[in-house]
Amino acid sequence: MSILPSFLQELSDTKAIKEDDSQVVKVPKEYGIDFRTGQLTGKIVEGLEAIKVWIWLCMHTERFRHAIYSADYGASLEQYIGHMLSEEYINTDCESEITDALLINEYIESIEDFEAVRNSDSLNISFRVVTKFGSIEVDENVRR
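-> structure tokens emitted (144 positions)
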């Protein structure tokens, strides 16, 4: 699920990368985001940078909260903040939640080296995302 309108993506998908002899992979595109402020930059980013944007948006969209998104999009991370849960439970369940949320993206192959640390009012999550275009290190602080 991209934030670009589908008709715009179809019109602008002129770039493609050959994965092997039998399969061509389209290069993902998204609107750029300033990750510090959450504001759109006005630029269109491609490839690994577009996947970073998609991951950031997915992690900052609470699942089932917004009717505009499908039930598959987003992650239910607020449930781990402000509750007395063991670190083991948070790590295991949060990893499952993030993995389920991110693997719906056709470009993401796996999630590795996952770690979640709960602070008093936030959750610091770090992991590596393996994609068809390379790896991305994610270190994100999620708040309510």
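DSSP finds three helices and seven strands in the chain.
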